[in-house]
Amino acid sequence: MASSVVLASWMVLLLVLVMAISTTQVEAARAFFVFGDSLVDNGNNNFLATTARADAPPYGIDTPSRRPTGRFSNGKNIPDFISDALGSEPILPYLSPKLKGNKLLVGANFASAGIGILNDTGIQFRIVNDALVLITVGGNDFVNNYFLVPFSPRSLQFKLPDYVRYLISEYKKLLMSLHDLGARKVLVTGTGPMGCVPAELAMRSPSGQCAPRLQEASELFNPQLVEMTNGLNDEYGANIFIVSNTNQVAYDFIYNPGAYGFTTSKIACCGQGPYNGLGLCTMLSNICPNRDEYAFWDAFHPSERANGIIVDRLLRGSIDYMSPMNLSTFLALDTTTRT
Predict the structure, then answer these.
(1) Alpha carbon distance 10, 55 (integer Å)
(2) SS3 string of 278-312?
(3) Residues designated as active site
(4) 334 — pLDDT class (breaks 50, 70, 90)
(5) Fewer CB within a 10 Å sphere, N or C end of the chain?
(6) Cis link prior to 324 (omega < 30° from 0)?
(7) Number of continuous H segments (helices) and E segments (strands) in the chain
(8) What pLDDT digit, counting tens, does each position of 219-238 carry?
(9) Residues 6 or more apart whose Cβ sits within 8 Å of residue 121
(10) Is the distance from CB of 115 to CB of 45 less than 8 angstroms?
C-alpha cells in the first residue's frame, strides 16, 4: 500500500512540475501524469522499501537494453503506449533523480504497485489544464483486500455489492478532487477480468475457468464506474472524464486469444506452478521464449503485446469499450475548456 512518504512526495513534486511547465517557453507535447497501481507503475517502487518490485531480471527482457526498468512487464506498459500516441517520450517515475529540467515538461508517473482506491485520497497539488491524467486503481482493493483471505475484514464488513458501491463512492471523491485541483482531461480505467489472471486460476480454479466471485466483482464495478464518471461529466457540464470498461477490453483476448495472435491467455509467460501463476517472476521461473504469444507476462500483469492491444482499445475503441468517447476523440477536443 502507498506510504505517507509517497503521498507527501506527490504533493511536493506536482507543485514543482506545474511551476516548471508554466514558466518554460519551450514547446512540448501534451503533459501526461499517471496515478495508479502496478499495471501502470514504471519504476517508483524501485526507490521504495517494498517487496512489490520489478527491478530484477527477467522483467524488462524485451526493452532495448534488455534490463529491468521497474515496469511489471517484459517491455512497455500502458503509459508507454499512450506516450507513443501523444508523440512524447516515456514519462519518468516521480522518484527518479533524472526527473529534472526539460524532463519535467513531459509529465511524471506517480503510480506505485500495491496502491488502491481506499488509501489514495487527500492529495493536494495543481495540474495544468491541458495535461492528460491517467488513473488506474481498483484491482488491488479486491485482489489484495476484499478477496485476499477468506473472511477478510472488508468481506466481513461489506457484502460484495455494498463494497463495490463503497469503492465507487470513494473513487468519485478522488475524481472530484482531481477536478478541483485543475485536471480537465482524465482517463479513468476500471478493473480487468480479475478472476481470469493466472494467479487467480492457480489459486481458485483447477479447471482453468475464471474465478466466478472475482469476475462478479469486475462485472459489478465497471458499469458503476462508467455511470459514476458520466454523472460527474453531467454535473460539471463538460467531458472531463472518459472511462474504459477494462473488463471488456481484456475480456476479448482472454476469451478468444487466437483471434489476437496469442496461443494462451491462461498461462503466464513467467512464473511457476499451475498456469505459472504462483510466486514471483524470477530468473529461476519458467520463462517462455515467445513472449508475444502470451497474453500475460507474469501472474497478474499483461505482456507488452497485450498492453498494446489494451491501449489501442483506449485510443480507438467503440462505446462498448470507452465512454462517452475514446481517447483519440477526447484528445482532439478543445484543450482550453474551463468549468
Answers:
(1) 22
(2) ECCCCCCCEECCCHHHECECCCCCECHHHHHHHHH
(3) 38, 298, 301
(4) low
(5) C
(6) yes
(7) 10, 8
(8) 999 999 999 999 999 999 99
(9) 170, 173, 174, 177
(10) no
